[in-house]
Design brief:
The structure holds two protein chains of two kinds.
Chain A lengths: L1 E4 L1 H7 L4 H8 L3 H8 L7 H11 L3 H4 E4 L7 E2 L1
Chain B lengths: L4 H24 L3 H8 L16 H25 L5 H30 L10 H26 L5
The chains are: A alpha+beta, B mainly alpha.
Chain lengths: 75, 156
């Protein structure tokens, strides 16, 4: 199972940098980068905060997938 | 860019630890005699030699102990400093795990090396092995921590 996310896409749609998104949810730019590249699974609180920034449900931003994806985090 | 309070606390800890390490290094090599040469040049003999003052070893021992305390307190401050977010806490955890394994391996290899060297007397070697292993922990932690933050986090 892998946890994928659409953060990079959502950011690109809104022309938002990693630093700007990080500032909106009060974390470091490195944390956003690690989440996007699948190196780090955020806590539930941070996932909800990120989803709120994009005005979408958490499940639309973070997707639990059965298929293997190089960007997803194996859980 | 202004540093946050926790970053300043950590920076003070790093400064204290490095200063303590340098002090310990100087004390280990009797480097204080060169300080004596500078502040009390009148005691230099005509041939250029400089006799050790009567209280040299007491001062050197006190200097070494104070330096070791500074190193310990500085390292403690680094590990007690708050991290900016949950990702940094994970990097810290990974760095500690990495450093503990590195420390154990270096200690084990050093011990095996001396133990299996024919004719070598192990007495008085344990302190050196423990010191080297502790140093390995600090170096491995710093390398792993900063590698995680600066080299594995490309910006888009």
């Amino acid at each position: 199972m892998k946890l994928e996310n659409t953060l990079r896409v959502e950011r690109a749609v809104r022309r938002m940098t990693q630093a700007e998104l990080a500032g909106r949810v009060d974390v470091s730019r490195q944390a956003i980068n690690a989440i996007e590249t699948g190196k780090f699974i955020p806590s539930a609180v941070l996932a909800i905060k990120l989803a709120r920034v994009f005005g979408k449900p958490v499940e639309e931003i973070f997707i639990l997938s059965e298929e293997s994806n190089p960007v997803g985090v194996e859980i | 860019m202004a540093l946050s309070r926790s970053a300043r606390y950590r920076a003070a800890g790093v400064f204290l630890a490095i200063t303590g390490f340098l002090g310990l290094w100087v004390a280990s090599w009797e480097g204080l005699i060169n300080v004596y040469r500078i502040i009390l040049p009148a005691y230099t003999l005509p041939d250029g030699a400089y006799p050790y003052p009567a209280n040299f070893w007491d001062v050197n021992a006190a200097f070494g102990i104070v330096s070791a305390c500074m190193l310990t307190i500085g390292a403690g401050m680094v590990f007690l400093a708050k991290e900016p977010d949950e990702y940094f806490y994970r990097i810290r955890l990974e760095a500690i795990q990495f450093a503990v394994i590195a420390q154990f391996l270096v200690g084990l290899i050093a011990f095996a090396y001396f133990y299996f060297t024919p004719g070598y007397q192990m007495e008085n070697t344990f302190q050196g092995i423990l010191g080297m292993a502790s140093g390995t922990f600090l170096v491995a932690y710093a390398l792993r921590y900063y590698a995680g933050i600066y080299f594995n986090a490309d910006q888009d």
